[in-house]
Amino acid sequence: MQRKINVSQFQGLCSSVEKAIETAMKTASQVGKIYSWGPIAHNKNVVKKLEDSGVFVVKSLENLSIGDTLVISAHGAPPAVYEEAEKRGINVVDATCSNVKKIHQIVSQADDDTHVIIAGDYDHRETIGTIGYAKNYTVISSEEDVDKVPMDYSKYILVAQTTFDTLRYRKIGEILKKSLTKQSKMLVISNTICYTTVVRQSDACKIAQESDLVLVIGDRKSANVNRLLQIAKTYCERSYIIENVSDLQSVAEIKNITMPGILTGASTPKELVMEVINIMEQNINPVDLNTVEEVKTEAAVAAEPVKEVKAAKKEVEISTMEEALRSGYAPKSYREGMTVKATIESIDPTGVTVYVKLNGKNDSGFIAADEMELDGSYDPSKYAIGDNLQAIIIPKTDAKLKAINLSKKKYDELLVADEAVKAIKEGEEFSLTISQAIKGGLLGKIGSYTIFVPASQIRVGYVKNLEEYVGKKLRLRILPPKDEEVQEGEEKRRSNPKRIVASQRIILEEEKLAKEEAFWDAMQVNNVVEGKVKRFAKKDDKYFGIFVSIMNKDCLLHISDLSWTKVEDPSEVLELNKKYEFVVLKADRDADKVSLGYKQLQKQPYELAAEKYHVGDVVKGKVERIKDFGAFISIENGIDGLVHVSEICHKWISNANEVLKVGDEVEAKIISFEKNKITLSIKALIEAPVAEEVVAEEVEAEEKPSRSAKFNKRAAMADEKKGERKAKRVVEDDEPHEYVSSTTGATMADLFKGLDLAKFASDED
Q: Has this prediction a pTM greater than 0.90?
């Protein structure tokens, strides 16, 4: 019989690690030798492959020089690494996982009154990076470490390393919640475990339960590989880490392998996984791959003569009692599903023949080999005639057989399931597939226990049709006795120890409250948050805003806060169902409203203009509006320039309307750009006519005389008046007078004494 290998559907490198490796190799191919801050992947084979490509691991930047290139792996790095790289002139290529960046953002936003609790491995590089962003923090790795958390802060934030154990993280959160709630402290639990980690760990549980040997392929130093190993060992003791194909030698001698399972770490290359599978298929002893029915042992041969019992053949699949009755399965005083005590009569490799005492009679029963053990490793030598067993009655597969068909394996499954109920009774969350809808609620089974979920505890709100939940899986937690609800129509009765009343609603309400707290904690004014554009809102055929989904809650972005320029249709700026960053403008928890801004994170028009336009540039634009003092020219959407009335043309005008009108297209020169104001000149591009300029100056001089001209005019008027007064005095004195000098006393005659007039006569005279 060919063996079936149970391989996890989640194989190979996680997307973030794969992207980091591709980034590093591409960078190395472009620039040559580069360095990575710690191993890009926790896998020796991958590290060796990267070294061959020119990527070398460093733990410090001391030996790096200016111009060297450093790749930050998906695990991230503390801020100090980026700062030191900048100081040293080292080029940084950041390949940090987006989930890790999310943790850094949450931690860095914590204020001085908030204590950050990091669930993770203290020495793990991801945790080291996260610590670098925290002000006050405590790292814990188990429930016992909760006692290390100081209780003198008013607010706490719990985050997890992306590869942390999901179940352990939930338990830590519950312990902290109980402890801090008693002290009236606030706790925000952030779901930071990577989705890939969650599904890999969940798949590990499933495969380990179905397998009798589990191989976890990955590096022994990898945190997520070791967690997968711990999970596998919980369900399958024969679980091992395989780093290289040579490690398969250590498990090659294991016998009775009927269903091997394979799990892979997040840093394990798919090539190694395929190589391990190929070697297992070719080299493991085929005998070990057969079903245990075909294995014969010396003990079985040497056993006492046994009563011949033909093994039941699985020719007809019977799943209900009705089908069993039609197949000849006539009940006596027993029924399908009943647990009975059986005594072994005979043993052989096909199974065990027993007798069961029912209703005062001894009935013969048979337990097939594949119904004996949970792991399928039936060994006849382990049993002896006369041994007592507990088994469960199951449908017959052959109506001709008179023996009761039994299963010891199903009884053992009940015991295992009942063991799990202990944790359920202590309040641990569990999953249950609903098998039946009854009046007042839902029913399901775990081991020998019946689980009842009242209709009011299925979800938050009224459930109209209970049948819709049949076959579906619910997440449940046991209700305290005082909160248990008796299903409608049931009478009060003595408490049934095998009956558990559970609720999904309390889990959903707690998660809703935690999400609410996390949401309003993030909605602080001026915080930058990421959201998805959900829909554009209209009123009276006009758009008034955009509804943005942030953490599954609708927030409003008013259209006035969408763009610095006027926008009629939001689709001009944003796309539906696409994610963008927004800034919180207002948050009102009482009114359950949040107002967002988008334009506040964008450059204003004048900032864009300052990058594009400079003094001296010639631009084209359209006259947008005209004022008495000048005209505004639209250079491009949202960017205007002012042409003062004096810069429109060379001749004097009193108003821009004399030359320009709205809608005119003009060319102008930028003559000033200060702050957010652009000053333009049209006349700077026009040659000034000289004559007109002189005439204009003369006209201006006539119309507007200068201060000196005014002074000269007044002086002339004063001299004129002085002369008039002197002339008046001469007219009034008609008497002749002899001139006498006021300084020498000489008369007019004295002045002309000795004058020879003949000297002034011409030759003609």
A: no
